[in-house]
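Researcher: We're teaching a course module on how sequence relates to structure. For the next exercise, students receive a sequence and then see the predicted structure as tokens, so they can try to spot secondary structure elements on their own. Here is the exercise chain.
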Amino acid sequence: MITDMSKFIDIGVNLTGSSFNSDVPQVIERASLAGVERLIITGTDIVHSERAIALSRQFDGCCYATAGLHPHHASDYSHDLASELKEMLADEKVLAVGECGLDFNRNFSTRKEQIRAFEAQLELAIESQKPVFLHQRDAHDDFISILKTCRDELGQAVAHCFTGSIDEVNDYVILDMYIGVTGWICDERRGGSLQQAVRHVPLDRIMLETDAPYLLPRDLEQKPVAKNRNEPCFLPHIASAAARHMDVSEAELISAAYDNSCRFFDLKP
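Model: And here is the predicted structure for the students to work with:
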């Protein structure tokens, strides 16, 4: 049962996006009122990683950042960009490398470019000993194959915005990875596979995220402030759905996800 004492960490918020340009303070306040006490702002390229760091400084104590290059932008990878990322990763407000990985669904960058940028960022994670915030879509076999080559050297790793199958969960668990669950689990049209798969996610591997402004839960009764825009304040709703499909109590799921997130990002409870 979700109470006023329930605490949450949203591990993936795209707070640097244009849809949040006018009301970031209000978004953070609504999150806080819902018990979402900390937000990890996702960096998807150099510009958005810089913005994420700036927001984490502006809202010190509740916001933190990741820094990385999303596979959509993998064609931008260069040695100069790698140097910029390395510098960002030295910032105490940057808690993880990413969002990085592979996306063979849209292929905005070629597969070769994606693999090159992904492997380079894994090397940065090993060098910095920071966790990796990972993206994978329609590229599971190559994704797993690359991770296996360096998993022993990597620190913590999370499959962000997981929407996959039971087999994919099992592959990630074998690699001692965490799994981030979003409002996709609330989608009666597309979320069936995830609803089945989360039953196989160990409680010590689960984390919660909104991926806001994307993936507004379809079964949400509360009307969002901005049309169709997801927000961190809806994370408790996602937690309820995750608990239901994992067949555990809400309190148990919320406590586990919070503790896992603190451990993953090296945050004090």
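Model: If you want an answer key for the exercise: Strands lie at 8-13, 36-41, 63-67, 94-103, 132-137, 157-159, 178-181, 206-208. The chain has nine helices and eight strands.
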